[in-house]
Amino acid sequence: MIESIAVVGSGYMGGGIAQVLALAGLRVSLADVSPEVAAAGRERIIAEAADHAARGLFPPDARDRIAEGVTAAASIEDAVAEAKFVEEAVPEVPEIKSGTLARIDAACPVDAIIGSNTSTISIGVLAEALERPDRFLGVHFSNPATFVPGVEVIAHAGTADGVVERVVELLAEAGKVGVPIKDVTGFALNRLQYALFSEAARLVEEGVATAEAVDLITRTTFGFRLPFFGPFAIADIAGLDVYEFCYRSLSETYPERFAEPEVLAAHVERGELGLKTGRGFLATSPETAPEVARYRDDAYAALSRLLADLPAPPIRY
Cα separation of 92 and 90, whole Å? Predict the structure, then answer.
């Protein structure tokens, strides 16, 4: 069992990761470019924990738990000396990350797992900085790490068997959902996120809608569904034949941007149309359609009540 953790990088992301792990009862050593920066980072996350607790976002004793569980190290080498898992969260600059990872690799125990919080840099490329790349992988938290549950877990070609599983288990202990992803440019999260942003930007460029209108229609339609159903579940519920028809319509005007995905066409050709046939991208039986509908209605109504209780976001257009 992994109990001793080091987080290298005490900024917003590294500090949030340290909070998450300390609240799970793990010992966390926090390091940065100097002892003073690490100490300041520790004090910041302790104060932040107190504020979160006062607002009901963290447990009432969160400040004390983080103060007890997180220590500021004198150096990277001191922080990782006894760690069983090290998370690198330094700036997204390849040279900085590679240099930091080399120091971690040289100083931590031979059986320690090393993760990088990179959001864009190839894990295979970063692995070249390590003498023991078999214990290295990407462990990509989202901002803010304290509250977003999903974490991409990215093995490179040389990651040893069992490393991904151990990290997923560690994340589960901390209340996070580790999702194994292959090492490709952008991984999964950012390919999805930037695909959406690209089309949103084009709508504004073309004068179809304002930025405010795009944000509003996204939040109040398909974005409203996403906390409960991912894109494949939504497609299966709607019907893959419906999706194919929409792709054909869109591709007439935007052939390069909206060509029908081959995997969608293959499902439709086999008659696998989603929930109504019991097989699509998922395998939900048609007999469960009423149950799916009840869950959907309950979930959407609950989210509507939550949004009604919250003030409007302090965003100005």
Answer: 7
Contact 200/218 with Cβ under 8 angstroms? yes
β-bridge partners, 181: 154
Residues 203 and 209: beta-carbon distance below 8 Å: yes
Q: Give the residue-averaged pLDDT of 156-167.
A: 97
DSSP labels for the chain?
Answer: ---EEEEE--SHHHHHHHHHHHHTT-EEEEE-SSHHHHHHHHHHHHHHHHHHHHTTSS-TTHHHHHHHHEEE-SSHHHHHTT-SEEEE---S-HHHHHHHHHHHHHHS-TT-EEEE--SSS-HHHHHTT-S-GGGEEEEEEPSSTTT--EEEEEE-TTPPTTHHHHHHHHHHHTT-EEEEEE--TTTTHHHHHHHHHHHHHHHHHTTSS-HHHHHHHHHHTHHHHTTT--HHHHHHHH-HHHHHHHHHHHHHH-TTTSPPPHHHHHHHHTT--BTTTTBSSS---GGGHHHHHHHHHHHHHHHHHHHHHSPPP----
Give dist(CA 299, CA 304) in Å, integer. Answer: 9
pLDDT of residue 1: 75
Q: Which residue has the tokens 């932040």?
A: 48
Q: How far apart are CA 56 and CA 52, in angstroms?
A: 6
Q: Which percentage of the chain shows pLDDT scores above 70?
A: 100
Q: For the whole model, what pTM was predicted?
A: 0.94
How many Å separate Cα 31 from the centre of its chain? 23
Degrees, nearest 5: CA angle 264-267-270: 150
> Tell me: the pLDDT tens digits for 88-119?
999 999 999 999 999 999 999 999 999 999 99
Over the chain, what is the mean pLDDT?
97
